[in-house]
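User: Teach me something about this protein's shape.
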Amino acid sequence: MNPAKVETASSTLAAQVEKIVATTPVGDIHTHLYDPAFGQLLLLGIDDLLTYHYLVSEVFLYLEMPYEKFWKMTKTEQADHIWKNLFIDNSPVGEACRGVLTTLQKLGIDTSARDLKQARKFFAGENPDKYIDRVMEIANVSSITMTNPVFDDNERQRWLAAPEKVGGDPRFKAVLRIDPLLRDFPAAAKKTASWNYSVEPDPSAKTIEEARRFLRDWIDPQKAIHLAVSLPPDFRYPAAEGADATIRAGQTMLEKVVLPVCAEHNVPFAMMIGSYLRVNPDLREAGDMLGKSDVQSVVRLCRAFPQNRFFVTMLSRENQHELCVAARKFGNLMVFGCWWFLNNPSLIEEIERMRFELLNTSFIPQHSDARVLDQLIYKWDHSRRVIGKVLTDKYQDLAATGWPISKSDVERDVKKLLAENFTNFLLG
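Assistant: First, the predicted structure itself:
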């Protein structure tokens, strides 16, 4: 074939894939966003964008400042401090910095001005409810999956006070987050007992049944689409011989409470594995770290509980290949997203290439993990560009074998990747 024609066909395919990936609505499987009924739990605007924990940790790379001095600042002062040190005194080439600029640009704010006046004026006039629609339209996000930690007193009280309000926005889907139940059961038992459930630190038969009742009492009013937990890199299933009482109790809760209730309600269980919390406690939420996890623990869970469905993402780059291979072996395992410290273009590209090569189109390539509403804009813009690039390369590999790729083929595949793999796995 004429090389010029090959190049033209290649660029035409790339443009077509880019357009389809950009214009296909996405169902965001994991965020930390809230609907407006949650009040101040919904973060948005320039000050929240700039005080995102990624940028908080990065600002301390450039300037020696006592942590306590930073935390005594108001949010606006913190934002100004981060803007000066990360955007003005240094080029903002980091992904989290670039993300702020992409967001402002997509909202029509002039980033060349290099100040925050226009941005602050813009956000001051926004109505949160209407602004959600605008952000979702720009990001082309059709639904937002929340994270709803039932053991967080602030959030729990909002659900109890007005469940029809906080769970009533069709743009947002609830996920019941139950970390303490598995990570620190003695503390979870104490709290649950204070809520009139007969739960004790020793997981007796009565405690197991009461813990199941507790989950049932929250799944239904939340209309939770699945349950979720974040686990440390040293999570093991089954627990190591000689593990302490807290770890053993957590395993009992997983085996006897969480997974049976998920199966009973036909909802998946999401495991996000690989985070060490507060390795630098002075950084607060910005002080978390990652570590290599044990994929074989996931394999053993998938094998031991075939009636359950597992969404799984891992935080360490080193886990990605083994996790992909595990997903080839178990239909009840759905790999999703490039989580947290993996949410960088170079790593997303590497991971997505491997996933296409091992899993075809049977995975969920990305989630935003957004904590600030506006982040939906840049996280999906940046990720779509990478996904489109990788997918184009894979289609070109097919075309080189003589296999034609039609527009409808691309539309079908992209719809699966950005929406249907998630929704279909939810339904079972």
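Now, about its shape. The domain at 45-125 is CATH 1.10.2020.10 (uronate isomerase, domain 2, chain A). The first strand starts at residue 26 and ends at 28. If you'd like, I can walk through any region in more detail.
User: That's plenty for now, thanks!
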